[in-house]
Structures are given as C-alpha cells and as structure tokens.
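Summary of Year 1 activities. Much of the first year was spent building the evaluation harness for sequence design. The harness presents a backbone, in tokenized form, and records the residue chosen at every position. We chose the following record to illustrate the format because it has been used consistently in internal testing since the harness was completed.
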C-alpha cells in the first residue's frame, strides 16, 4: 500500500480516520510519563480488556513501563484498507507492542469482539501460553452494541434519562454553539439494553472463565472502570440509562470481590475515574460542555489529569506488584477525588450557570477539549509533519 498524506476527517464527535505517526508519538509520550528503568521493575502479568484507547490503553502502558508487567491486550480495531486508514486503536496497540518488545517485555494483542465466546477462548489460550497466570485484570470495555453470546440477541446502548424529560445545556461540537437540549426518557427496553451492553454481565463471564481455567493468580487484582461525575450531569449520566448500567457493573464487582477473596485471596474493585475526552463521552449531551469548564478550572488549580496520569496513580497505589487496592466506604477506588473537590465543583457550577456561546472560550477550555478530541485520532500532535506522506498499513508486531 503506497504512503499517503492523512488529513483529519472529523466533525462533531465523529472521526473516521487516524494518523499513524501521531498515534505512535502520543503512545510514546504516555510511556515516557510513567517509565521506570528495568532495575525498578517488579514484574507481573497483566490482562487488559479494552486495551487500545483511553483508560485501557493507559492501563497497559502504566503496568508495562511503570512496573515491568508482561501483558495481553484485547481490543476491537480496524486495520488499514485501500479506502481508509486503520483505527487509532490499531496504531496505538502497534506502538505499544513495538515499545514493549524493545524493552524486553512480553506483549500480545487479540483483535476481536471481547463479548464473544470465540475471543474469550482465544484469550484464555494466549494467557496460558504467554503469561501463565494473570496478576491484574483490567476491565475497560465500552461499546455501542453487544451480542449476547448465549441468546444471540443484539443489544444497543441508548443515551436517555429515566422517568421524565430533562432540559440541559449542551455545546454543539461542530459549531461551538451553546444551546439548551431536551433529553427524552428511556423505555424499560432501552434501560435493559443499555445494562446488557455496559453492565456487569461480561465482567462476571470473564472472571468465571479465568477462574475455571485456573488462570487468575493467588491474590489477583481485578478492576473495572466507572464514573460518578458531578450533580450537573447526573440526570443524563448517573441517573440515566448509562448510570443504570454502571450501577449494575458496580454491584457485580462487589459480588465478585467476595468470591475472589474467598477463592484466591483476590480483589475485584471499581475505580471511579475522572472525566476525560473519549469518542463515546463526546456523544453524551452536557458532558463535553461540563468537561470544557472542568478542564479550565483544574488547569488553573494545577490538578488537571489525563488518562495516563490517573492510571499511573492507580497502578502505583492500588494495582501494581505488591499493592492492594485502597477503597472508600463504598468499596470504590477514588481516582476522581481531584475532580470532585468542593472548590473545583463550586467554580465549575458557577461557570455552568453563566456560560453561553459568546463567552464559551473565556470561561471554558473548549479549544483544549477539541484539541484532546483530535489527538484521540493522532491529529494535533506537536512535532508531527502532517504534510508528509506516511505508511498507513501498519502491522501489529
């Protein structure tokens, strides 16, 4: 496949291509943010489900290059074709694998639907052959749909409120216009479908399979990612269909924690993470506007974090070799503590009440939000020559 110049094809919360060099450089920057030299590594075996972008990608990097963990990553990504580039997750994973191998670490990837029995069985074989046992399992799956592996039913995530319509502010990511939008309530079927995709069913299925195969090490740590967020987003997020799914995930994790503690002396915890830009979160009404305001306030306070900074904290304090999770009264690991500080939320709430189209770029970091969004796909990366042709057909090492 010949080299080509890759220009971004992004509008709103949709981007249909990605830049291999930009993705690789962003992966390298995350590696440098957490890298410790091999004499400081304590090793371990890491399995990440949903490993190619966002928190899953940052988890794999933090475990590998901060603690010397060998890893298997499961992801669903698109290789390049003669019509378009590979997905960003494909390029991210290729960069991680190259860097891990150069550092003498084992790194393998499985590209496929983690909700399927086929990929589960393939992963068990890869873990058995490549890792032997799993010390840390990261569950970071996020998808718009899921086919139930037992019934064959296709379930689809729905972004809706529950009980009544909700009027909220939103920013149009294509135009920068701040406007009021009404979110209609979900049907019982909408709620059930969203829980089926984003709830705890597959976390349970994976742990059942790993335990059944004898692949979870004594004292293994399992973590799933969730989000609480501020009250301003609760009607749409925490008290909406997605929140119902997250609560199901959290209940499942609590039940599995008791089982792992009894059977292998292990842990299963939920980490409440800070809000960060993802393609999925960009589609949730009110959330991009809230994050734009939050980033401005947290940057001014010197507490702003992206995925890699949070995952460094998670592995250093809770999941890395020799660590045990530290939890709050509800059993959650709180990585959102800096976001939810009262003084931060008070200032964000004030700006939420006063933001409009004309002052959007004054009271918020809307331009920063857009910058982070483009970087999800390897664009807007300083030092990358976007006028130079690049090889888009990148192999997974």
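For this record, the design step produced the sequence shown next.
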């Amino acid at each position: 496949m010949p080299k080509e110049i890759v220009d971004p094809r992004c509008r709103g919360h949709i981007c249909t291509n990605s830049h291999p060099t930009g993705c690789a450089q962003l992966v390298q920057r995350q590696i440098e943010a957490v890298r410790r030299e091999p004499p400081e590594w304590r090793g371990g075996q890491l399995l990440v489900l949903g490993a190619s972008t966002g928190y899953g990608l940052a988890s794999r990097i933090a475990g590998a290059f901060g603690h010397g963990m060998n890893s298997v990553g499961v992801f669903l990504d698109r290789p390049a074709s003669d019509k378009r580039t590979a997905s960003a997750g494909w390029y991210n994973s290729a960069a991680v694998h190259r860097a891990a191998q150069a550092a003498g670490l084992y790194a393998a990837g499985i590209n496929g639907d983690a909700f399927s029995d086929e990929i589960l069985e393939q992963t068990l074989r890869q873990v058995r052959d490549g890792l032997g046992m799993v010390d840390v399992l990261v569950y970071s799956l996020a998808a718009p749909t899921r086919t139930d592996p037992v019934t064959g039913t296709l379930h689809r995530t729905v972004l809706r409120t529950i009980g009544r319509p909700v009027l909220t502010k939103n920013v149009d990511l294509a135009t920068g216009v701040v406007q009021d939008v009404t979110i209609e309530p979900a049907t019982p079927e909408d709620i059930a479908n969203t829980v089926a995709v984003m709830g705890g069913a597959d976390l349970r299925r994976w742990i059942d399979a790993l335990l059944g195969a004898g692949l979870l090490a004594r004292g293994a740590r399992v973590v799933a990612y969730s989000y609480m967020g501020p009250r301003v987003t609760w009607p749409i997020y925490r008290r909406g269909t997605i929140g119902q799914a997250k609560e199901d995930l959290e209940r499942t994790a609590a039940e599995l924690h008791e089982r792992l503690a009894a059977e292998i002396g292990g842990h299963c915890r939920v980490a409440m993470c800070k809000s960060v830009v993802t393609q999925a979160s960009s589609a949730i009404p009110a959330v991009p506007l809230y994050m734009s305001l939050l980033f401005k306030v947290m940057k001014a306070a010197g507490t702003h974090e992206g995925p890699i900074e949070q995952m460094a904290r998670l592995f250093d304090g809770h999941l890395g070799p020799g660590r045990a999770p530290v939890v709050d009264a509800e059993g959650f690991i709180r990585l959102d503590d800096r976001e939810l500080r009262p003084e931060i939320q008070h200032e964000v709430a004030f700006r939420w009440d006063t933001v409009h189209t004309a002052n959007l770029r004054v009271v918020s970091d809307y331009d920063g939000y857009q910058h982070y969004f483009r970087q999800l796909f390897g664009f807007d990366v300083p030092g990358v020559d976007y006028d130079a042709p690049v090889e888009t057909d990148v192999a997974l090492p």
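Residues 241-264 form the longest helix (24 residues). Quantitative recovery figures across the full test set are reported in Table 2.
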